Amino acid sequence: MSTPDVDVNHNKNIKTEDILCPLVEYEECDFSKLLEKPRLLNIDRQRSLDERSLSELSIGMSPRHSTKGVDLNSSRFFEQLESICSPVGRRSGFSTPRSQTGFDPHPMVAEAWEALRRSLVYFRGQPVGTIAALDNTEENLNYDQVFVRDFVPSALAFLMNGEPEIVKNFILKTLRLQSWEKKIDRFQLGEGVMPASFKVLHDPVRNSETLIADFGESAIGRVAPVDSGFWWIILLRAYTKSTGDTSLAELPECQKGMRLILSLCLSEGFDTFPTLLCADGCCMIDRRMGVYGYPIEIQALFFMALRCALLLLKQDDEGKEFIERIVKRLHALSYHMRSYFWLDLKQLNDIYRYKTEEYSHTAVNKFNVMPDSLPEWVFDFMPLRGGYFIGNVSPARMDFRWFCLGNCIAILSSLATPEQSTAIMDLIESRWEELVGEMPLKVCYPAMETHEWRIITGCDPKNTRWSYHNGGSWPVLLWLLTAACVKTGRPQIARRAIEIAEARLLKDHWPEYYDGKLGRYIGKQSRKAQTWSVAGYLVAKMMLEDPSHLGMIAIEEDKQMKPVLRRSNSWTL
What we know:
The chain is of the alpha+beta class and 573 residues long. It contains 19 helices and 16 strands. It has a four-stranded antiparallel sheet. The longest helix has 25 residues, at 317-341. It is globular and about 70 Å long.
C-alpha cells in the first residue's frame, strides 16, 4: 500500500498536542547509526551462534568467542544447514525464468509476489510492514493494520528473497512503539509489551504521517498480545541469521527491548510451573476458545524466544544476568513440556489408568487429572505410531486438542526431541484427512460443538464448529508445516500439502481461512487477499527450493537439555 510523498522535515514540527493518544511520533535521528554499512559476520569457517550449548552460557561463563571452527564433515543434515546463511542480495530463483533447482516455478508464485508487494505499508517513504488484508469488499475493521504475528511470514519471504531492509524497518518501528506508555482504562501495561498491530495515519492538511499502535485496548476482549514480543525476538534472530548483520541486534535499543520482553516472562511470582500463565485470546487464537492457562502455542513460542535471546544478548553485565536466568528457565521448561504436555499411545493409556487423589512427592498423576475427563475422540485420533504436544496442562485439566502452530514451533525450536519431532510428523501423515483434508491446515483439532461450544466460546458466532479458530483450515500454516518437514527430513509431506493448496488458493483469491471438516469451503467471514496466506505460501515454496533457508527460523537441539528418559512404542522408529 503506497503512500504519497511527505515532507519529513515538516513532520518534526508537529506539536505534542496535535498527536492523538496513543499515537507515536518518530524522530529518525535516534537510529542514524544504523544507516552505516552493517558489520557482517565471517560465516565461512566460524562456528554458528546456534551451536553453542547452554553449558557454555551457564554461571561463570567465559566471554563470547566467534572463531571456533565448525565441523564441516558432520553428517547431521540440520548442522549442515546451520552453517549456511542466506546472504544479503541473494534472491530466490522464483524471480527468474527458471528456479535454482532447474524446475519451472508454479505460475502462482509470480502472482503471490505481486500480491505481497501490493500489501506493503509505507511510513515516511520507507516500507515498514504489510497490511493484514486488501479485501475491499468488506469493512476494514483492523484488517488495514500491520500485525506483528501476521508480518512474520512476510518478513521471512523478503529475507529469503534478499530484501532485508523492510524487516529492519519493521523491527525498529515496533521497538519504538514498545517504549511508549500503554494504558487500558486506568491500568498501565508492562513496559516490555509489544503491540499487537499498528497503522499509519495520513494527515493531508499537514502533509504528515504518524503511527498508532494497538496494545490490546482495541482487541476482541481487550487482551494484550503475549505472542508479539516472542515473535519480535524470533524475527530479530531470523534477520541476523539471514543477513549476517549483527549490528542491529547489538544496538543498545534492541538489547534493551529484548530485556524488557524477558523481564515480563522471567519474573518470579506464585507459579509452581516454568510455563507461562496466560489469558484466553492472547495469541493467534485471539478470541475465547478455552486456551487460557498454559496454551501450547505460547509455551512453544516462549521456548523459541528464549533460545533466540540466548544467541542475541550481549554478555555485558545486564546481558549476563538475563542469560543465567534464561539457561535455568530453558532446562526447567524443556523438562516440564516433554514430561507433561507430550501425548502418545503409551501416555494416553497411562492417563486412562490413572489413580486420583494421590498426595505425595511420588504421585504419578501429579495434576490430579480425572480419567473420566478423557474425550472419546482422542482414543480414535491417536495412531499406533505418533504423538503430539497437547493444548494445555494445568491442575485437574488437560486439553487434548491438537494445535498446529504450537507443535510446529516445538519442532523448529527443538523443544521437541528428535524422536518427538518424528512422532509429530507421523501423526500428521496418519491423520492426513483430519488435519489437512482438502485445504491445509487445521489450526486446531477437533472442533467444539453443541453444549461444549456454548460453554467454552460463549456462543461465539465466528467460532462455530469447523470455522475460524474452531477447527478452521488456515493456509498461512503451510510455512510452519514446511519448515517442520524440512527439519525432520520429510519434505514430501510439505510438497503434498502445497500441491493441495495450489489447486485453490489463487482461484479463491487468497482467503484467510476455510471452513468445514475437510476445509472445503471458503470461511463464512474469511477475508480475501489475506497477506499472510500469500506470504505463507511463498515461504513454503522457497524453503522447499532452498532448504538452507531453514536456518533462519529453526534451532538445533541443545545436547545439554536432557530429554525425558522414558520411551514409548511410538518413539521406536
